[in-house]
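Hello,

Our lab assistant flagged a job as stuck in the queue for most of the afternoon. It eventually completed. Since we weren't sure the result was trustworthy after the delay, we are filing this so someone can double-check. Below is the sequence as submitted and the structure that was eventually returned. Let us know if re-running is recommended.
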Amino acid sequence: MEVKEMKIKDIFMYVLGGIVVFSFVAITVLLIFRPELKDSLNLVIGAWLTAFGTVVGYFYGSSKGSADKNDLISKR
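-- returned structure --
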């Protein structure tokens, strides 16, 4: 099994993805336990849902496969 080298871009991508996912969970918990913040959090959670969907789409969607294919082709 070949070990893939982690580039700075890859590390940043994983950290950014982790921040988006963690923020989404934190905002959801706030929405549940602090109902008085409902109006503000509804706006924020809408924006974070979009970001969360983008992160999940990249890591598990066709964009990741395309990126892996391009890396493989550039190594030849």
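-- support follow-up --
The delay was a queue issue, not a problem with the job. The result is valid. Residues 31 and 37 are 7 Å apart (CA to CA). The mean pLDDT is 77.
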